[in-house]
Amino acid sequence: MARVTSADVARESGVSRTTVSYVLNAKDGVVITDATRQRVLDAAARLGYTPSAAARTLRSGRSDLVLCVLPDWTVGPVIDTLIDHLTTALAEHGLSVLVHSGRGKGSLADLWRAVTPCAVLGLAPFDEADTHAMRQAGIPVVGTALDEDPHPEIFSVPQADIGGLQVEHLAERGHRVLAYAAPSDDRLAAFADRRLAGARAVCERLGLPEPRVAPVDLDVASAVAAVRQWRSGDDPVTAVAAYNDEVALAVLAGLRAEGLRVPDDVAVIGVDDISAARLAAPALTTVWQAIDAQASYLAASVLTALGLAHDPPQRTSDVFHVVQREST
Amino acid sequence: MARVTSADVARESGVSRTTVSYVLNAKDGVVITDATRQRVLDAAARLGYTPSAAARTLRSGRSDLVLCVLPDWTVGPVIDTLIDHLTTALAEHGLSVLVHSGRGKGSLADLWRAVTPCAVLGLAPFDEADTHAMRQAGIPVVGTALDEDPHPEIFSVPQADIGGLQVEHLAERGHRVLAYAAPSDDRLAAFADRRLAGARAVCERLGLPEPRVAPVDLDVASAVAAVRQWRSGDDPVTAVAAYNDEVALAVLAGLRAEGLRVPDDVAVIGVDDISAARLAAPALTTVWQAIDAQASYLAASVLTALGLAHDPPQRTSDVFHVVQREST
DNA sequence: CTGAAAGCGCTTACAG
DNA sequence: CTGAAAGCGCTTACAG
Known about the structure:
2 copies of one chain form a homodimer. By secondary structure, chain A is of the alpha/beta class. Chain A has 3 domains: 46 residues, Orthogonal Bundle (434 Repressor (Amino-terminal Domain)); 122 residues, Rossmann fold (3-Layer(aba) Sandwich); 132 residues, Rossmann fold (3-Layer(aba) Sandwich). The first copy, chain A, is built from 13 helices and 11 strands. A 6-stranded mixed sheet of chain A has the order 7-6-8-9-10-11, with helices on both faces. The first copy, chain A, is elongated, with a radius of gyration of 26 Å. At the A-B interface, helix 4, helix 5, strand 2, helix 6 and helix 11 of A face helix 4, helix 5, strand 2, helix 6 and helix 11 of B. Chain A binds a DNA duplex through helix 2 and helix 4.
């Protein structure tokens, strides 16, 4: 079964390949008789014609592929959801999202040169050099910034706000001596540092002492060590803001192992609202993120960069909020 | 900055494009002088030449892309890990894994025809028709079977064994009246049914009554309803095998809400060994899967199908084992 | 050992 | 309104 080409469709419908192309690509400025159009469309359907992406890409120098580069750390359910939304949103415009979990294997340069994507979406910050090279080659790059950024082509989740929101919540509940449970994975440092900075800033604004920071692995022993440190001294910590829900779950386990009650002795708040958060004992208070809004924004950024957007990207206001449960 | 083509490399090194191609593709059967080879290699490096994937694909009718189609349900950390391993393994052979989270949007047929992948990897069972069409078009399809399958191009995780292993573990711990906590998401039914069938088979073999099945959502209310049902009657359930760790966590929450002790009143075992499992209270006993071995097998299957493998896929024996914690 | 030429399937000026 | 022709960048018989 050889591939069906536009020449086949042309023959079948008795027109030239030019006409087939015009009909199928709904080129405006070119007018085609309704009868002809219908004949072509019918023939294409009958033959099961699908244009060759390779040929099209070679011709136009640009594919329908949006290369989405993931960071090299394990991403988790939040990013999965984000990508799902993104895939759906861009599919409506005929774009396919190609996700690359770039574990540092091979350079990004080789990848994008080989794939010829129509746009590159970075879910983790890129090298300056890489970004520059892609822009040079005319490929729109939608990047990710960790903080507020005025450029619409930069997708920014104000990480600092997340940390700030956690502290505000804990302060409202009457806590004064706070801890920050940081991830132990260095690759998360860029995110964690921003969130921590936000937490620090709010502490300062509210006149609270600096949060006491300790790294927490996703196991009980590590959490116990952190808890002991936090509870030592004259002014023991009474509330912990965790980098995310998994870290918060570890803190919960450490507290439990140390015989401390949550939230009476120590309160805990996470980030992400994973399903395990609401099933934990006690159920975990957390910061919910509007992933779908983020995905829409990202999709709109890509479409804008490609000149395909009807609307410019719209920032939503309710990007985060605290989901109050039993742990605070 | 126009794209660097093989013609540029040819000019720069003073040879023809034919020779450039021969050198760069290490075509055997063709012998090139060392001096020439080196000149070409140098020129390519100097110019930063990357062959156009589009042109190559158009020419050969086959790209370097391995299309990996995910099922339409949320996949979770296990599949993330699997894909990571796969990406790394196939990258060593110059293949890029393109993950498509096909939420049923658009037909698979359109996707593969458009992408021209060199192989398609299905992480969920495909339509007969789709598989057939791809094979017709000469694209190797590595599929997923839910049970043991003798074909090497079929990747099979014997789901039934997972359910069986859970029951064996619970029976060893002295339990006789078992329940099966099924996922409420219909899209998981294919997997859940297999695991349940395995659990049933082992119950029968060991002379235990059939497991009592109830669907459990990832929230407390749903789990409470299931627990009440399981504990009602003359012969209350004393152990629950859950579809996966998340469902098991929900069951734990339901048990807790009902004031039942784990494992004294009711034991619980999950599947996957997610990080929340070891952080739960009590820590969750679960079935660990050798994801890396599965990924290697899958990668080897793809390479074999492509005639690139040195070794045929090797099935590992230790695909699963029980990680015993406090919940059983 | 190396080069000139054809052709993969598409789109798009350019003519009619 | 529609067609003949060129060309995107590559690889590979086919000649030298």
